[in-house]
Design brief:
- It is a single chain.
- The protein is α+β, with helices and mostly antiparallel strands.
- It has a single domain, classed as Thrombin, subunit H, CATH 2.40.10.
- It has a five-stranded antiparallel sheet.
- Strand 4 and strand 5 form a beta hairpin.
- The protein is globular.
- About 10% of the residues are buried.
């Protein structure tokens, strides 16, 4: 997974449709609990052996956005 400010790209075994609502949870040693990020599927690339999707985050909560800021700044996250 490649998370950023506006969204993330992820390879999946399942097929999702554009605009489907999703929640991605990021974990890191610096977080007590997983960081849930709500968003929508922005694009889908289907291949014979995997599907790659892009998720556009919906930032509605200042606390979650600040937690993402701190997490991306640490470069120590794992998914």
């Amino acid at each position: 997974m490649a998370p950023g400010w506006s969204g993330a790209g992820q390879s999946l075994g399942a097929v999702l449709e554009p605009e489907a609502a999703v929640t991605i949870e990021l974990t890191a040693p610096t977080l007590w609990d997983p960081l849930p990020l709500r968003g929508r599927v922005a694009w889908v690339r289907r291949a014979s052996w995997r599907t790659r999707v892009g998720v556009r985050f919906d930032h509605h909560d200042a606390a979650t956005l600040f937690a993402l800021y701190e997490l991306l700044g640490s470069f120590a996250f794992e998914v």
